[in-house]
């Protein structure tokens, strides 16, 4: 096995192959960042929606809860396949990476909305009541009182979730998205040693995930709410 | 909300998506589905662009239709779904003409033949394909290939190994996971070059001959007729046979006959609108089969959880109380496994270890991979629990004369469980969902069985909706059970344990 790897290595680490893997790594990042970014936006909307109390909005609250509970209970692989076959009849022009990004968004929305909701709830109710007593509108009390204080509770787990999802996007290789994992698969099917082909993929994920994970933990330490409130 | 709206819209009406010839001509693009991993039909060459027989034929057809060729990588199992979805205008990749497929898509005249032979190695001493019909033989095949069903009739006794891609079939034989492949020999022989040490053997007496054609959307007669006209020209001027010889270095075993070319002009497909109608009847009849798969999913989750928890507990204690080098080694393990995908870790276990002489079955490889992965995450989770045990408590227990095991059992574990019960319960749910990746290695758990069903009935959306519901039910039951256990045995006032 070792001899084979040593013999293949010079041809394997050609600039064409490295460029191919690097482009695939870019697609992995794209799916994760765009999907989680959209998911954060929609998740924030859902979290705010679920805090409202107007009876008119009850069905919307119920739908938001259904979304959150559903997409956290279906494997990402199954969601990918369902989005693939569900979305393309409507938007036949959409690319495979677009489909994978939609799947990431659906899942990220569900998880991030729960993280955001926990963050919003970490702000003591008394402060909202205090804001109301000072004649703040609902929007003002949310924007000026609740949100600024909840960022520090929301951001660290949200960042950790995104770092975790970098690795989950490897399942998109099943659709044929030429992301990091699929690039390794193509190299191995072309005759490269699996140790080299999948090894370089593992290395790629580590290079993405490790520094970002460190960053997320630094965020956690710096933003940690003081304990004596 | 827009996505939700689209989903609702889609539930109401699934529009017909096939583009007629006029629309294709107007857009100036013909979107052709070709397999990205199927040399010499189509595959990524050294310059990382697609090439092969299918690609050359598609280019010739696009030339005749005077449109630009757009290649869409289409895995074998997605050849029909991509068409019904309108993602591609025509589907290639050795698409055999079958009645099941003809119910969902239309076919052009045959493009080439498919003579089914046997690829095996010197390990098996057979000389005729009939000798394969033994229980100690394992035949490898690909999900979504029509030969899977046909072989059940011709060769009922051998065991079956289903894999995901063309290259995986030959790899499975080379690594000794399977003994033989019954398929179109021409298609698969190319991969044997990746394994020069294996003594390959080919039995080319055809078991049967099938015909492959180009698939188009149901009822897309304008495109089908345009393609038939173009194809007839390519057949008659010898282009097809020439391209075949160029890519296969051998003539086509059974060429397409003039009679078949003539026939295509006469066939008129009866009616058949392009609208998709939902049909749950097939998948609903297979719910018991799917539930059987759910049991295997749970088995994987249970095994990986308990084995992973053992690793995690050892890791957490080692990291907190062990000597510095041990703590460092554990840290390398945790960082290595938590910063890379479990899927690729299992790829390495399953595909690379055989090179070192260690052959793991699909189930074993998945369980080991997920266990090592879970062990790394659980080390981190349990570390928080172990750290919550104060040194003073352990010292007090030592003073009271408890043994090391006694301290672990009576002082540390209750403390740890109180702290980590909720994250542990969440992790178990994550493992249930994560076990679905076993399907990509041919393990027939819930997702694997769903893929098996949907590649035969071609009702992917219907099948996977039912499977999604089963997963939701499974995790809801697991969450509820864990919440009850937590409340009664560990006095944890959890209102809800969610993933």
TrEMBL record, chain A:
Pfam families: BPD_transp_1. The keyword Transit peptide does not apply. It is found in: Cell inner membrane; Cell membrane. GO terms for biological process: amino acid transport. Keywords: Cell membrane, Membrane, Transmembrane, Transmembrane helix, Transport. GO terms for cellular component: ATP-binding cassette (ABC) transporter complex. It is a multi-pass membrane protein. It comes from the Bacteria. Its main location: membrane. GO terms for molecular function: transmembrane transporter activity. The chain crosses the membrane at residues 20-49, 70-91, 97-120, 141-166, 195-213. Residues 25-213 form the ABC transmembrane type-1 domain. Belongs to the binding-protein-dependent transport system permease family. HisMQ subfamily. This is Polar amino acid transport system permease protein. It comes from Polymorphobacter multimanifer.
UniProtKB/TrEMBL annotation, chain B:
It is a multi-pass membrane protein. GO terms for biological process: amino acid transport. Residues 294-482 form the ABC transmembrane type-1 domain. Its main location: membrane. One of its GO terms (cellular component) is ATP-binding cassette (ABC) transporter complex. It is found in: Cell inner membrane; Cell membrane. It holds the Pfam family BPD_transp_1. The chain crosses the membrane at residues 289-318, 330-352, 358-378, 424-443, 463-486. GO terms for molecular function: transmembrane transporter activity. InterPro entries: AA_ABC_transptr_permease_3TM (IPR010065), ArtM/GltK/GlnP/TcyL/YhdX-like (IPR043429), MetI-like (IPR000515), MetI-like_sf (IPR035906), Solute-binding_3/MltF_N (IPR001638). Residues 1-18 form the signal peptide. Keywords: Cell membrane, Membrane, Signal, Transmembrane, Transmembrane helix, Transport. The keyword Coiled coil does not apply. It comes from the Bacteria. Coiled coil: none annotated. NCBIfam families: HEQRo_perm_3TM. Belongs to the binding-protein-dependent transport system permease family. HisMQ subfamily. This is His/Glu/Gln/Arg/opine family amino acid ABC transporter permease subunit.
């Amino acid at each position: 096995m070792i001899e084979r790897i040593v013999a293949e290595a010079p041809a394997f680490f050609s600039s064409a192959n490295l460029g191919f893997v690097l482009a695939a790594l870019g697609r992995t990042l794209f799916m994760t960042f765009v999907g989680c970014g959209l998911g954060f936006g929609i998740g924030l909307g859902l979290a705010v929606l679920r805090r409202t109390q107007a009876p008119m909005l009850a069905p919307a609250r119920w739908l938001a809860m259904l979304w959150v509970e559903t997409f956290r209970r279906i494997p990402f692989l199954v969601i990918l396949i369902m989005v693939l076959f569900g979305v393309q009849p409507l938007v036949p022009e959409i690319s495979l990476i677009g489909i994978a990004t939609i799947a990431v968004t659906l899942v990220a929305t569900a998880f991030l909305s729960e993280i955001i909701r926990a963050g919003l709830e970490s702000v003591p109710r008394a402060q909202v009541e205090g804001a109301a007593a000072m004649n703040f509108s609902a929007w003002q009390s949310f924007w000026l009182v609740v949100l600024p204080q909840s960022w520090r509770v929301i951001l660290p787990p949200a960042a950790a979730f995104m770092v975790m999802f970098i690795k989950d996007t490897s399942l998109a290789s099943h659709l044929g998205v030429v992301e990091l994992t699929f690039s390794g698969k193509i190299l191995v099917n072309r005759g490269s040693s699996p140790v080299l082909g999948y090894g370089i993929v593992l290395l790629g994920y580590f290079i993405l995930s490790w520094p970002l994970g460190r960053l997320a933990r630094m965020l956690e330490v710096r933003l940690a709410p003081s304990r004596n409130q | 909300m827009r996505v939700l709206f689209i989903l609702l819209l889609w539930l109401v009406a699934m529009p017909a998506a096939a583009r007629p010839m006029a629309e294709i001509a107007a857009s100036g693009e013909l979107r052709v589905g070709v397999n990205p991993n199927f040399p010499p039909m189509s595959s990524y060459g050294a310059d990382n662009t697609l090439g092969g027989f299918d690609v050359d034929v598609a280019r010739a057809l696009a030339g005749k239709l005077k449109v630009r060729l757009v290649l869409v990588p289409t895995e074998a199992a997605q050849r029909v779904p991509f068409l019904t979805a309108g993602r591609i205008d025509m589907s290639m990749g050795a698409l055999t003409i079958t009645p099941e497929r003809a119910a969902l898509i239309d076919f052009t005249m045959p493009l080439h033949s498919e003579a089914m032979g046997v690829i095996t190695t010197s390990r098996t001493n057979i000389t005729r394909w009939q000798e394969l019909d033994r229980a100690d033989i394992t035949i490898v095949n690909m999900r979504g290939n029509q030969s899977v069903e046909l072989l059940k009739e011709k060769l009922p006794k051998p065991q079956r190994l289903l894999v995901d891609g063309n290259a995986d079939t030959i790899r499975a034989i080379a690594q000794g996971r399977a003994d033989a492949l019954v398929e179109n020999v021409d298609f698969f022989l190319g991969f044997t070059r990746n394994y020069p040490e294996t003594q390959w053997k080919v039995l080319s007496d055809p078991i049967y001959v099938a015909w492959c054609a180009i698939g188009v959307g149901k009822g897309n007669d304008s495109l089908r007729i345009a393609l038939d006209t173009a194809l007839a020209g390519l057949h008659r001027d010898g282009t097809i046979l020439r391209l075949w010889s160029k890519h296969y270095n051998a003539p086509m075993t059974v060429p397409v006959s003039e009679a078949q070319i003539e026939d295509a002009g006469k066939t008129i497909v009866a009616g058949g609108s392009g609208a998709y109608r939902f049909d749950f009847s097939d998948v609903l009849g297979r719910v018991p089969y799917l539930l059987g798969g759910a049991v295997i999913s749970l088995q994987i989750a249970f095994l990986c959880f308990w084995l992973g928890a053992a690793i995690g507990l050892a890791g957490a204690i080692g990291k907190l109380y062990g000597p510095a080098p041990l703590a460092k080694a554990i840290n390398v393990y945790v960082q290595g496994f938590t910063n890379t995908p479990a899927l690729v870790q299992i790829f390495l276990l399953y595909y690379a270890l055989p090179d070192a002489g260690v052959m793991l079955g699909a189930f074993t490889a998945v369980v080991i991979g997920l266990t090592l992965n879970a062990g790394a995450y659980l080390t981190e989770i349990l570390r928080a629990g172990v750290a919550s045990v104060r040194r003073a408590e352990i010292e007090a227990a030592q003073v009271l004369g408890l043994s090391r095991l006694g301290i672990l059992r009576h002082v540390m574990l209750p403390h740890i469980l109180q702290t980590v019960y909720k994250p542990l319960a969440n992790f178990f749910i994550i493992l249930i969902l994560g076990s679905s990746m076993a399907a990509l290695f041919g393990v027939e758990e819930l997702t694997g069985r769903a893929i098996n069903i949907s590649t035969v009935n071609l009702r992917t959306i219907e099948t996977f909706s039912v499977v999604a519901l089963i997963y939701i039910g499974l995790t809801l039951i697991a969450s509820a059970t864990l919440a009850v256990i937590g409340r009664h045995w560990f006095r944890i006032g959890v209102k809800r344990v969610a993933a």
